[in-house]
Amino acid sequence: MASKFINITLKIWRQKNTNAKGAIETYSLQQVSTDSSFLEMLDQLNEQLINEQKEPVAFDHDCREGICGMCSLYINGRAHGPETGTTTCQLHMRSFADGDTIYVEPWRSRAFPIVKDLVVDRSAFDRIQQAGGFVSVNTSGRTMDANAIPVPKADADKAFEAAACIGCGACVATCKNGSAMLFVGAKVSQYALLPQGRVEAKERVQNMVRQMDEEGFGNCTNTGACEIECPKGISLENIARMNREFLSSVITSDK
Ligand code: SF4
Ligand code: FES
Questions:
Q1: Domain covering 5-115, topology
Q2: CA 232 / ligand 1 centre spacing (Å)
Q3: pLDDT tens, residue by residue, 122-152
Q4: Residue 40 Cα, ligand 1 centroid: separation in angstroms?
Q5: Is the pTM of this model over 0.90?
Q6: Atom 6 of ligand 1 has which residue's CA nearest to it?
């Protein structure tokens, strides 16, 4: 398909730092290729702002291929924009029309404070991971080959699906309660389903849920918005599994 060029108006959240008062500012951008990604369009805007001796818009990105989860933007009121199963870096300008006005905002959640403009601090997710999102292995040189441990195919598939979570935070941003339970459910599930993860399963789920609560995330009330907006198709089933893991660990814990 031949590339087209469109002219758009951008309404972008600008905020100097965490404590400053932010506001939406308006920019007009001409000749945007419909083949460019949403982030390339923001690069084009920043070049224009730099040429005009203005401050470029700060936004997060790294891999630009849907892997790292950094490109967290609210676009026209939806996490990662209008397409489903897509991160912002995988969104293309062909999803917009000539003359469109596009609103671009950062994730809004108490647990993800704004650092600058569209960049938020998602280190709360790192601390939840550090609280239990790992498996301890014997590194003495006599470590058992993981493939030597039989795993039922259905469990391996479900663990793999849970492990697809990229920690982008769209689930939190889109949830009216600011809940992180889809993220934590995925991280608990990817280990709970495998024999290697069972050894520390009880401590893991309790520690990760405790850290999630300490970070100020809200509770799940089963609205399901997180599942709809998750770019990796993480299922609500993972929240149910985390709840079962948590309940059974509390009941059977000897501490
Ligand atoms: S569960 Fe989905 S929306 Fe939430 S952090 Fe993981 S990939 Fe992102
Ligand atoms: S920049 Fe890595 S997922 Fe978008």
A1: Ubiquitin-like (UB roll) (3.10.20)
A2: 7
A3: 999 999 999 999 998 877 888 778 788 899 9
A4: 23
A5: yes
A6: 165
